[in-house]
Design goal:
Layout: E1 5-13, H1 17-20, H2 23-36, E2 41-48, E3 54-60, E4 63-70, E5 75-83, H3 89-100, E6 104-112, H4 118-121, H5 130-149
Antiparallel strand pairs: 1-5, 1-6, 2-3, 3-4, 4-5
Helix pairs in contact: 2-3
Length: 150
């Protein structure tokens, strides 16, 4: 099966408390990333937590982009999942990184729908016969010992 989409999970550490707790800043950053990365915005939704933090979701024709901020930890968790070939999730992440200015970033690239070959889909079970051989050998020795004891 071919790759259905690209899914980037991004951890940004060392971001500004003020930026992570500012809904308008996050909204503007996400909409800029959507536009510049050639994505199609369908809807934008958010929830502001008290005393701080927020979750924002950009519903895209290509899939979604989300951000969960933890200003108290200077941390943002970002997902960018897109289907098709015309959008650029890597560019969206670069724009968010430029705007949020993290000290450290960890990006994980997941290829959605990439099952590889048929053999990759079979469960991999490793069975060792050694314990079974030991039991068989021990049983044979016990029988041999008992037959000699008579």
């Amino acid at each position: 099966m071919k790759i259905i989409g690209k899914h980037l999970t991004v951890d940004m550490y060392g971001c500004s408390f003020e930026n992570l707790d500012n809904l308008e800043f996050i909204r503007s950053a996400m909409l800029t990333a959507v536009r510049e990365a050639n994505m199609t915005l369908l809807d934008f939704s958010y929830h502001k937590f008290e005393p701080q933090g927020l979750t924002a979701l950009a519903l895209l024709a290509e899939s979604h982009m989300s951000i969960h901020t933890y200003p108290e930890f200077s941390y943002a968790a970002i997902d960018v999942f897109t289907c098709g070939d015309h959008s650029r999730p890597d560019k969206a992440v670069a724009i968010l990184k430029n705007l949020l200015k993290p000290e450290k970033t960890k990006i994980t690239n997941i290829r959605r729908g990439d099952f590889g070959s048929e053999s990759d889909m079979r469960p991999k079970i490793k069975v060792s016969m050694t314990p079974l051989r030991r039991v068989r050998s021990t049983g044979a020795r016990v029988l041999s010992f008992l037959s000699r004891a008579k």
